[in-house]
Design brief:
Length: 212
């Protein structure tokens, strides 16, 4: 069961990258760079480097940036994972290594983020095709923190900072999942209590009908 869920998660990540690439196919690299630059605040040169590192695929670049933002990890780490697991097989492994396991609350939040971002970029590319103004990508922009987007050599001090960010992120995910689990258990208990009440009422009605 877990294997099938993992494969489904992997397919979701690949499909996201495929969709983004299809939205951007009608535009030049310079036009796409301008849109990403306005949305993420990442320097043009870095975006061009990422494009080469992610197999000349703008869908993978965007997925890598969204992973970096969602997980709070350097883009450099995302690139490293991508090269270790080619053909899109690393996205699910990468998510799991940061505590985002298939079926978990964190995984569903990530899926919701990807769904929203897919819709967002579909609309952005559509609007850009009509107006050719890259500034529209500033809508709901994600301006990266310098301590998160790191593309190049990392100092020992930066590594410690990144590890603290990851640890903090994992604690937040665990806390949120624990909270959601308690809420689910509370709802489940309420439903079971209600079902038991209905069952007893049905038994009473049946007994009453049998007396007639």
């Amino acid at each position: 069961m877990m294997i099938s869920v993992t494969l489904m998660a992997q397919a979701d990540f690949r499909q996201f990258a495929v969709d983004i690439r299809s939205y951007s196919n009608s535009y030049s690299n310079n036009q796409i760079v301008a849109l990403y630059e306005y949305h993420y605040g990442v320097p043009r040169n870095t975006l061009i480097e990422l494009y080469g590192s992610f197999g000349n695929n703008w869908g993978n670049v965007l997925l890598g940036l969204e992973f970096s933002s969602f997980l709070g990890v350097p883009v450099r780490d995302i690139v490293s994972h991508y090269h270790r697991y080619p053909q899109g097989n690393g996205w699910g492994v990468l998510a799991q290594s940061y505590g985002i396991k298939p079926g978990s609350a964190g995984f569903h939040r990530m899926k919701n983020m990807m769904r929203d971002k897919n819709r967002y970029w579909r609309n952005i590319f559509y609007d850009y095709g009509r107006h050719r103004d890259p500034v529209i990508a500033r809508r709901s922009g994600v301006i990266f923190d310098n301590g998160v987007v790191i593309y190049g050599p990392v100092s020992h001090k930066e590594v410690k900072k990144i590890n603290k960010q990851i640890e903090k992120r994992n604690k937040e995910i665990y806390k949120q999942e624990k909270k959601e689990m308690k809420e689910w258990e509370k709802r489940d208990k309420k439903i079971r209590k209600q079902n038991e009440k209905w069952r007893k009422e049905d038994e009473k009605r049946i007994k009453k009908m049998n007396k007639w």
